[in-house]
Amino acid sequence: MSETNQFDAAFFRRWLATAAAAVDREAGHLTELDSAIGDADHGANLKRGFTAVTEVLEKEPPATPGAVLVLAGRQLISTVGGASGPLYGTLLRRTGKALGEAESVTRQDLAAALATGVAAVGQLGGAQVGDKTMLDALVPAAEALGDSFAAARDAAEGGALATVPLRARKGRASYLGERSVGHQDPGATSSALLIAALAEVAAA
Question: By C-alpha distance, which of 204, 171, 202, 175 is closest to 186?
Fold first, then answer.
């Protein structure tokens, strides 16, 4: 994709619909990962949240990329239980707000906005890269998005895999101490799904 490519609200709705389908498909796997080091509800919670996002975006499609993400973020916060709702909701809302009111945005615009959203997630959760959280996938993805959508996808997937040997230092998994080692973080895994959906829609 060239730098002149512009991405409108319809593109962002397709991204979130594709992400919802991926979460639906992988919900069992996400819950399986979460049962090892969490509350065993990550897949079910995200599935409910992204289903609600798809419905609200179909009902009244927002006119700008920023508005799509802000509405989606609000919906996740109101429908997803546990930590996932506030964290994912903050990611999308803050990314959407950073995009402003532009009717279309470039990949570079999105990369900068996503970095803002990811930073907000770090502040909310008090986590950083290496703590075995969704940030292990999101931080490298936001950095790589400056290069390409595919690079962002690969960076997110690599970041999620890299959580396996880590000891959790934040969130529910941190209570397990050494027993959290050897398990892939469910939040990083679902974050990688979100970025993979973005790359898929961009390549279509």
Answer: 171
